[in-house]
Write a structure and sequence with these properties.
Strand content: under 5%
Strand order of the largest sheet: 1-2
Distance between the termini: 32 Å
Shape: globular
Number of strands: 2
Order of helices and strands: HHHHEEHHHHHHHHHH
Largest sheet: 2 strands, antiparallel
Low-confidence stretches: 1-17, 382-390
Mean pLDDT: 85
Number of helices: 14
Radius of gyration: 22 Å
């Protein structure tokens, strides 16, 4: 009877461990970030909208809709087994390339061709969709690679699927997204077993490419100005460095505990350009201070930790590489966005995940976490797989 009891308990334990439970920590952090984003967008727009006679909650309502869409995207992609993407990826990849080509024939907005106007005042940004598609495609190509080394043929194929959309995005132009592609590609290649010599060759080729872009003057004048102004931040305080100057004033005025919600003059009076998008972190720093900003950074660090732990415990290399790619994308976005508000990174126009105003970037990032959550839900032991406890 004792043996039977232990056997029954063991069966019950395995049954529990096979249940596809979601990652609650990841979901709670994402939901909290979405809520904070809605609040910060409202704080940065209410006075300006009221001044021009519009509904002071208009921007907040739009952000609420995007946040709801992000939650739906997370749930939907969580419920889809990530292995199902393998057969669909060639079609998804080609479809994404089609969108990237189509957007080049649309009407420019702010001297860039990045958005496709859809009904209900929604602008689809194909380059954001391409980030998740590239991660999935890289994972599919590199997953079968042996752990002891990477063949150049497979490595070349991986680079090719990144190079094509990168060129199309360069034509928009969108230098920030190109940098995201480069970073997350290196991260996935490293995790997939690329040798140190191969990585050095890729980094060297990247440096040569950057120098060639600079010498051949292929970059737009404003892109060059952003880089040069970052290297010399004392110049152009009323020109290219104006955004950075106002951003640093806003964050610095928050001091330790902040000036209080709806009490920041830089935020309330819209002194910081693009504060609801690129510079949303300044609203956090001014109103919530160093403590509030530090909590946000810690929350991102916890989210990154959860993703990497899921990568370690994935049931196969495909799932592991997906999680690593999403981690690389998230980390680069957070570092560059926060870094450019305090002057440690050049201004590239990358949004702060789940907090910056916008629809496509927020929904795609949430969908990416949903795919990672699908990897987590698949971690339980099934025949032929080894369970890795987290």
């Amino acid at each position: 009877m004792a043996v039977l009891g232990r056997s029954a308990a063991r069966v019950g334990l395995l049954t529990d461990r096979r249940r596809p439970a979601p990652d609650v920590v990841m979901f709670v952090i994402m939901a909290a970030m979405l809520a904070l984003g809605v609040l910060m967008v409202y704080s940065a727009t209410r006075v300006r909208l009221e001044t021009i006679g519009e509904d002071p909650t208009g921007a907040m309502q739009k952000q609420l809709i995007f946040a709801a869409g992000a939650l739906v995207a997370f749930v939907v992609t969580s419920l889809i087994n990530y292995h199902e993407y393998r057969n669909l990826l060639p079609f998804i990849y080609v479809g994404t390339l089609g969108l990237l080509v189509y957007v080049l024939f649309t009407e420019p907005i702010a001297n860039a061709q990045r958005w496709i106007q859809l009904p209900f005042d929604f602008q689809l940004q194909p380059s954001e969709v391409a980030k998740l598609v590239i991660i999935l495609t890289l994972a599919m190509i590199l997953a079968p690679a042996p752990e002891e080394g990477m063949r150049w043929q497979r490595l070349t194929a991986a680079l090719a699927v990144v190079a094509i959309p990168s060129y199309l995005i360069f034509r928009q132009p969108d230098l920030g997204t190109m940098l995201v592609f480069g970073f997350m590609t290196l991260v996935v290649l490293f995790a997939a077993g690329t040798t140190f010599r191969q990585l050095l060759a890729l980094i060297g080729a990247g440096v040569v490419g950057i120098v060639a872009f600079w010498q051949l003057e292929l970059l737009k004048s404003y892109q060059v100005a952003r880089v040069t102004s970052f290297l010399d931040q004392s110049q152009g305080l009323r020109d290219v460095n104006y955004n950075l100057n106002q951003s640093q004033i806003a964050i610095g005025s928050g001091q330790l505990f902040g000036r209080g919600l709806f009490q920041g003059t830089q935020t309330e009076l819209s002194y910081v350009p693009a504060q609801t998008t690129d510079f949303i972190f300044t609203a956090i720093g001014e109103q919530l201070g160093f403590v509030g900003a530090a909590i946000v950074v810690v929350a991102y660090a916890l989210l990154l930790w959860r993703i990497l732990r899921i990568a370690i415990g994935a049931s196969d290399r495909f799932g592991s590489l997906i999680a690593v790619g999403v981690a690389g994308m998230l980390m680069f976005h957070v570092f560059i966005n926060i870094g450019m508000t305090i002057g440690v990174a050049p201004v590239t126009g990358l949004p702060l995940p789940f907090i910056s105003a916008g629809g496509t970037a927020m929904i795609v990032m949430a969908a990416s976490l949903g795919v990672v959550n699908s990897v987590w839900r698949d971690r339980s032991p099934v025949p032929g797989r080894e369970y890795v406890p987290l």
